[in-house]
Write a structure and sequence with these properties.
795 residues; alpha+beta; Phenylalanyl-tRNA Synthetase, Chain B, domain 1; Phenylalanyl-tRNA Synthetase, Chain B, domain 3; six-stranded antiparallel β-sheet
């Protein structure tokens, strides 16, 4: 929101106050304000007259102009095709710094000395047009400052407003705060309106069929207007606050909006069927073309402003192309209404439109300002565009809005602020802010909520108003004696830094990706019923919460491959989401790891090694061992994301904490990956649950281990993990370690069978084992494997 100090003077005197002074006080009171200077640069820009214009003797496309700014004539070389003698133009004398940073110097151009520049729009910062110079009306005063002529010489402020202050989105709203801050009175516009037309009831009518969405609608009619450009004072003020002038009627509605904060709309009366207004709720899948020329599907329940046949405006947001003011308009119907904030906010978000009107209505406009706003607009249109104002106005007000009564207790102020604001000062502040004090007692005040402050509903709100105007810097600082005990973090949060550290130590790179993904990615590993769709997404590629981390990491790998990176090792700690029931959702924190492409390690034969399943399982086992101080079980698993037969579950004490495996080839192709990919995902809560709290330390063994190798031939369906558990059970307490070191299929092994080779370590804590003892255990192991798995020794 931009504020012009010149415009602000219409509502409060700023004599003796600089833009910096005002900005400092507003910022300290809760409205962040920054001085931004005048709209265009170049204080020395001046209006000049072209006395002569002749062709340059040495250049076909240049002209040599004799110009004056009220003093002695000067020569300027100009390249604009539209320059001509007798024109009033904008002159940048020598020494002027233009909007683009260029400083004007006296220079010889093709042998002719030029003593300034005749400016185009883009050179003074008024627009992007560089087709020709600015040509002013013939009555523009020669020698007058160009900024002053266009009413652009005012300092300005840029405001950053919080959503609860729609009242500050106008010059009058800011003036109220300044009145309280500086103790200066405010003034309101004097409206001089002559109702010299026929009765308004003979011209139009208003029917509200949706009072919940539009509690109040006021209409006025002005007949016989002449559409044309606005005078420079009006156009200049609009430009200062960032509004583009259009024509005198539309500019008046924008002027009143920026002045007192209430949005208005002007319809071409003869483009309204039946010359009537009907306010209703939109039906399902209705289409409507707004003023910007875009046809939109309007959400059911939106507020529609209609004529006798069709919608003509999207209430509180934007008018329709079918009823806009054009150069041929002669009769105007003015609208000033109050719309329910939630209805406007919902529609504006759904259709993706944020306008000056919607920003105010969705925060809460002033329901009592409609009469003042429409009367002032009608008076200005009559003044600037002529015409006759119809007698009376139509005020459809089926549901009267009543202000709330707010009770402020004197004891509440020191209790909340820790400082006792004088009672007279408190009353002065509230009165200056326009908050009526209806009754004063020894206990406190009974106030009435201003119609322009929907955020004031309780006594504590008034305490805040008093505090911000009185000055937060006047409230003494005290160190409290009561501390808030720290809340113990959930176990899954406590383990996150450790997981991150372990992954980095394993050589993985952390990535952070968006939780929002395209629906096609969510569909890869999740049915439609489990997806969590976003209703107000910004793009369709980010319209669903991810159900799995794999697509996010594969997309990162794809980007790296496209930039000639030969391989990546990634991890991410993030959330995945799913729908459990109609209105029940699930969010889980997971650790995901992806390996693909080259490891970056060069072998002796100068061949790069690729990441493989064993690299991934090694990293996964290390993470589990560091969490639980025990080795995990890796069991077969055919997940949707993995190549059949190349997936596994990770178990700790029989409970599943993660999955790992080789990513399906078709999924890799979907992301254009040129190499195999391996993926692991852990449930962070599961890892936290198995985390060991005590570390057990045991001494190094005093006696050597006895090592044996064992190769068993088993049916193809027998898992290595099952054989390993059988060996451990039969080996007893002296079997210290079992490792699978080979799986063989080929000559010497029948079809449908495989040979699994194990390395076994036996050790006793109190002696060196003899071969005879170990042989006994080996026979027991072979017999147990034969009985439970149909195994036999490989010959």
């Amino acid at each position: 929101m931009r504020i012009s100090l010149d415009w602000l003077n219409d509502f409060i005197s700023t004599d003796g106050l600089s833009a910096a002074n005002i900005a400092d006080r507003l910022t300290a009171s809760g409205i962040e304000a920054t001085p931004i200077g005048t709209l265009i640069a170049g204080d020395s820009l001046v209006i000049g007259e072209v006395l002569t214009c002749e062709k340059h003797p040495n250049a076909d496309r240049l002209s040599v102009c004799g110009v004056t700014t009220g003093g002695a004539p000067m020569t300027i070389v100009c390249g604009a095709p539209n320059v001509a003698a007798g024109q009033k133009v904008v002159i940048a004398p020598v020494g002027t710094e233009l909007a683009n940073g260029m400083r004007i110097k006296r220079a010889a151009i093709r042998g002719v000395t030029s003593e300034g520049m005749i400016c185009a729009e883009d050179e003074v910062g008024l627009g992007d047009d560089h087709e020709g110079i600015i040509v002013l009306p013939p009555d523009a005063p020669t020698g007058m400052s160009f900024l002053k002529y266009l009413h652009l010489d005012s300092e300005r402020l840029e405001l950053e407003l919080t959503p609860n202050r729609p009242d500050a989105m106008s010059h009058r709203g800011v003036a109220r705060d300044l009145s309280a801050l500086f103790g200066r009175p405010t003034t309101n516009p004097i409206i001089s309106l002559e109702e010299n037309g026929r009765p308004v009831e003979e011209i139009t009518s208003v029917l509200i069929d949706d009072p919940e969405g539009c509690p109040r609608y006021v209409a006025r009619v002005v007949e016989g207007v002449r559409i044309g450009p606005s005078p420079s004072w009006l156009a200049g003020r609009l430009r200062q606050v960032g509004v583009r002038p259009i024509n005198n009627v539309v500019d008046v509605t924008n002027y009143v909006l920026m002045a007192i904060g209430h949005p208005l709309h002007a319809f071409d009366l003869h483009r309204l069927a039946g010359h009537r207004i009907v306010v209703r709720a939109a039906e399902r899948d209705e289409r409507f073309t707004t003023l910007d020329g875009t046809e939109r599907t309007i959400p059911e329940g939106s507020v529609f402003i209609c004529d006798g046949e069709r919608p003509v405006a999207l209430g509180g947001i934007m008018g329709g192309l079918n009823s806009e003011i054009t150069d041929d308009t002669t009769d105007v119907l003015l609208e000033a209404a109050y719309f329910t904030p939630t209805r406007i906010r919902r529609t504006a978000k759904a259709v993706g439109l944020q306008t000056e009107a919607s920003q105010r209505f969705e925060r809460g406009a002033d329901w009592d300002a409609v009469i003042e706003a429409i009367d002032w607009a009608a008076a200005l249109i009559q003044q600037l565009a002529g015409g006759s104002v119809a007698k009376g106005r139509i005020d459809a007000y089926p549901q009267t809005l009543e202000p709330a009564t707010i009770t402020l207790r004197w004891a509440q102020i020191p209790r909340v602020l820790g400082a006792d604001v004088p009672r007279e000062e408190s009353k002065r502040i509230l009165t200056a802010l326009g908050i009526p004090v209806r009754e004063e007692t020894s206990e406190g005040l009974r106030c009435e909520q201003p119609s322009w402050r929907p955020d004031l509903t309780r006594g504590i709100d008034l305490v805040e108003e008093i505090a911000r105007i009185w000055g937060f810097d006047q409230i003494p600082s005290r160190v409290g004696g009561v501390g808030v005990p720290p809340e113990e973090a959930p176990p899954e949060l406590a383990i996150v830094p450790q997981l991150r550290s372990w992954c980095i130590g394993a050589g993985l790179q952390e990535v952070i990706t968006s939780s929002l993904v395209a629906p096609r990615y969510a569909d890869l590993f999740c049915g439609d019923g489990a997806k969590v769709e976003i209703t107000n997404f910004s793009t369709s590629d980010m319209s669903v919460l991810r159900t799995h981390m794999l697509p996010s990491l594969l997309d990162v790998a794809r980007i790296n491959y496209s930039r000639k990176v030969e391989g990546v090792a990634l991890f991410e700690l993030g959330h995945v989401y799913s729908r459990k029931a109609e209105d029940e959702y699930n969010q889980r924190r997971v650790l995901s790891i992806l390996l693909t492409g080259s490891t970056g390690q060069v072998r002796w034969a100068d061949q790069r090694r690729e990441w493989d399943f064993y690299d991934l399982s090694g990293i996964a086992e290390t993470i589990v061992q560091r969490c639980s101080l025990r080795s995990p079980e890796i069991v077969h698993y055919d997940g949707d994301e993995f190549v059949p037969g190349n997936g596994a579950r990770v178990l700790v004490a029989g409970k599943e904490v993660g999955q790992l495996g080789q990513v399906r080839n078709d999924v890799c192709e979907l992301f254009d990956l040129p190499a195999l990919a391996y993926y692991c995902q852990f449930d962070v809560i599961g890892l936290a649950a198995c985390q060991a709290t005590l570390s057990r330390v045991k001494p190094l063994p005093r006696f050597p281990a006895v090592e044996r190798d064992l190769a068993l031939v088993v049916p193809e369906s027998v898992e290595s993990r099952m054989l390993e558990n059988t060996i451990k059970e039969a080996g007893g307490a002296l079997l210290e370690r079992v490792i699978v070191f080979d799986v063989y299929r080929g000559p010497g092994v029948s079809k449908g069978e495989k040979s699994v080779a194990f390395h076994l370590d036996f050790r006793a804590a109190d002696r060196t084992l003899k071969d005879e003892e170990v042989d006994t255990f080996m026979r027991r192991i072979v017999e147990s494997a034969q009985g439970k798995a149909g195994a036999r020794l490989r010959e």
